[in-house]
Design a protein that fits this description.
The chain is α/β, with parallel strands linked by helices. It has helices spanning 11-19, 31-40, 56-61, 96-108, 127-138, 204-208, 236-242, 272-280, 331-337, 350-358, 363-377, 400-406; strands at 2-5, 23-28, 45-48, 72-75, 112-118, 142-144, 149-152, 163-171, 184-185, 199-200, 254-256, 387-389. Strand 4 (72-75), helix 4 (96-108) and strand 5 form a beta-alpha-beta unit. The chain has a domain at 2-187 and 362-404: Rossmann fold. Helices cover 26% and strands 12% of the residues. The protein is built from 12 helices and 12 strands.
Length: 420
Amino acid sequence: MAVDLFAGAGGMSLGFEQAGFDVLASIEIDPIHCATHEFNFPFWSILCTSVVDTTATEIRSRSSIGDREIDVVFGGPPCQGFSLIGKRVFDDPRNSLIHNYIRLVLELQPNFFVLENVKGMTLGKHKEFISIIINQFENNGYKVRQDYKILNAAEYGVPQNRERLFLLGCRHDFELPNYPQAITRPPKSNKASLNSLLSLTPTVWDALQDLPEVENYIELSEKDWVKEADFGKPSNYGRQLRGLSSTDKDYSYERKYDPRMLTSSLRTKHNLESRHRFESTPCGKTEPISRFYKLHPEGICNTLRAGTPSNRGAYTSPRPIHPFTPRCITVREAARLHSYPDWFRFHITKWHGFRQIGNSVPPLLAKAVASEIIKVIDIKPIKLGVIQDLGNEKLLIFDMSKAANYYSVNRHIIEPRKRS
């Protein structure tokens, strides 16, 4: 069993579930994200609270964990203070959340832990912070892999260039897990000659080719779903995300959903001038006015980012341009490029939907890491025949006030979005 700290919409939860773990408790401060998480994992517990304000006792008592031993605690503390595109201030107060991650791991006493963060933590003076983290664990009964690594999602079957730091640790009476070996190689990778035996990473078009063109559905101007959509012929990658074929060693619970339904696909209204600019931009290049990147169908996606929250300016991160239609990609298309299966749904707004994806770890990358822990535990997970219901769809339409009320928390726990 596992615990997810800083859970967001649930990318890491899903990856660990796919590897064979039951993620019995997840902690997330944002009520909107909690509601989305609950919709996709209604059979486990989501605690809508800050890690600063919770304890191991509360996590155990408010979930079905009780006094049982926990296999692994994982999570990615918000990391803007280390971001390569931020100022990377060493004493950024946002980085104090990492200390609370450590505190909860030591309180919960799992057999293993995984800490995920941005690549920027490994650069310059921030390496000192990694040393502090490792020392805190090693002084409290844990050991940590000293050869920490940056993993690129594109080497684990995800059609996106996304590099993240992973720290792996365990109690002193356990064996440290290894880092997962790459299973795919991105097109035109510098490592191609070294990894010629690996299969190619799915391309952008492998991910998108069977999805219905949203501009053919007028109703998607007002809502984010349509029944009985006209899906095309999928790639092998698309078949897996649609649930038409099984993913290798995927032990997640099957969800009850209609595969003919297109979800998370609210259209974006672009003016004629923008559409002309998008159309004239070559694939694989950046449109000079908007600075949006136009996806190349035979390449992989650039890193999908979340943008900034309300208290940091409420900026929407640039969304890629579709490779063939002069528009930005939809939330569902971003989800495909992030390795989320089609049954997984996001908040109905593009604002929250893209932030939920951009803030999350691609499930297939999380699955690769979690599978290494499964190997050390030396258990053989099984695929259960249980088909789980998804949650109530009202969870996906909550605004902040309704979501906060649903979880009985202050509606200003996340500062409201400032609109210009």
